[in-house]
């Protein structure tokens, strides 16, 4: 089914065609007619499914076909659609999509987030903004200063609403909701459903249509997943070895803690591998700059914590490495969702030490799949090493060692595990063979 049959205007179909999309993805096929009809929507979809276009395209269509009420009051002109996202990077990415898909329309969009000067944002808000993409905290700063007009919002989108709740944004969201007109369309997107989300959705949505793209789509068959078993103190050497041996370029590496991310960047530099970290303690300009370099193919390795990398859309990302396994199994799915997207091939490698076997077993339950395990020659794990508790950035009692800072939401996130259909045994099975077979290294095109 081509895009032209969905009822979107020619200008929008032209923009997506130029972007190279030939047909809508499943979430787009389901979401677009509902949003066009003006109804509320509750949609379960991960990043990588095409969800952004799923809400952006019909939103653009509706705003451009319904004329806005003239602004009679003086002061800041009213905004017509508000898209809230949990992270700055996701906000920037969504606004880029809005801008791109709407390039043949007369609508104006703006992105707003914290960590950068508020002044230029205030200046921009004096002119017309039809679609505002924002993170909750900075939006409320503007509300406090009276520099944003939310009194005429026609459509509200909560993107990655579950993650916003995990990040503790519920009060901010409720405050923002209280400022919006009662009559409006609401679209709520989530990756993992929870009781908290149910409460939010019940209070927010008016007779919504619920749609869900199956979780199994996420660990797409285009992603080759592999576990390398290795001792905890040799992970860094193994990572450097893999990067060099396979000539990997554009590698996104996940660590559990911010401190771990910084340390790994330093260690890779000693191995002459160029890397930058993005996490919650980095300034926004540093995060933006690292991401831009990485997206443009000018940075070999980007090391990230789950929160910082959440929702990043880097097309055709060839390699994702879990330097540490995530505590929350669903985060594994989000992480590897960065690769092999929209039909491109990708590789997701996890370096797993004896401390993490139970995490691996949880992940395999959630993805209902046993992952292939290998040992790289020269990096055989020492069977005498005993598992140690993972500290997760909190200093355990009696531990005089340094506290590692973790990006907060990972600690709070405790989604319910998915139903287990295939029983898997807890212990990983190991195949002894060396890592071989070089994969292509590809340049990205920024989406
Ligand atoms: P999202 O899930 O919104 O983060 O989108 C994931 C990726 O899929 C982005 O790189 C989009 O540009 C791409 N994409 C979205 N819709 C389509 C489509 N209909 N055909 C091909 N690629 C798409």
Question: Could you characterize what this model shows?
Answer:
The protein has 447 residues and is of the alpha/beta class. It folds into 2 domains: 3-215, Rossmann fold, CATH 3.40.50.300; 223-413, Rossmann fold, CATH 3.40.50. Helix content is 34%, strand content 15%. The chain contains 16 helices and 15 strands. The chain has helices at residues 10-18, 26-36, 51-65, 88-101, 119-125, 136-145, 161-166, 170-178, 195-204, 235-245, 258-270, 284-295, 306-309, 329-336, 357-367, 409-412, and strands at residues 41-44, 81-84, 109-112, 131-134, 155-158, 185-190, 209-212, 223-229, 251-254, 275-278, 301-304, 319-322, 346-352, 373-375, 431-432. Strands 10-11-9-12-13-8-14-15 form an 8-stranded parallel sheet, with helices on both faces. The protein has a 7-stranded parallel sheet with strand order 3-4-2-5-6-1-7, sandwiched between helices. β14 (373-375), α16 and β15 form a beta-alpha-beta unit. It is elongated and about 75 Å long. The two termini are 23 Å apart. The model is unreliable at 394-447 (pLDDT under 50). Residues 21, 24-25, 28, 47-53, 313, 315, 341-342, 447 line the site of adenosine monophosphate (AMP). One of its GO terms (molecular function) is RNA binding. Residues 378-447 are annotated as: Disordered. It holds the Pfam family DEAD. A motif (Q motif) lies at residues 1-29. Residues 383-407 have a biased composition (Basic and acidic residues).
